[in-house]
Amino acid sequence: MHAYRAIDPIFATSVGVAAAVVRINREEKEKGRSTEQSIESFKRRVNMVMEKSGEEGKVAAGGEKK
């Protein structure tokens, strides 16, 4: 019974991520974008978030912003 307790959050997270991917893909198709265009858009957004979080980390650590 204990194994299920460990697997439940992993399963729930994967179902949530899959649902988000399906919804985003459907919305992108409604906008007339191909799957490749949607993936490129997603990559750009992830890169922007990662760059922004990296800059915030430098400021928080006492470094200077670019």
Protein described:
The chain is an all-alpha fold. The chain has a domain of 43 residues. Helix content is 83%, strand content 0%. It is built from 2 helices and no strands. It is flat and about 45 Å long. The mean pLDDT is 81.
What fraction strand? under 5%
Quick check: average pLDDT? 81
Order of helices and strands: HH
Q: How far is the N terminus from the C terminus?
A: 52 Å
Helical percentage:
over 70%
Number of strands: 0
Q: What is the overall shape?
A: flat
Number of helices: 2
Question: Over all CA atoms, what is the radius of gyration?
Answer: 18 Å
Based on secondary structure, the structural category is mainly alpha
Are there runs of 5+ residues with pLDDT below 50, and where? none
Q: What does the main sheet amount to?
A: none
Set down the secondary structure blueprint.
Layout: H1 2-30, H2 35-60
Essential attributes:
single chain, 66 residues, mainly alpha, 2 helices, 83% helix, 0% strand, flat, NCE101
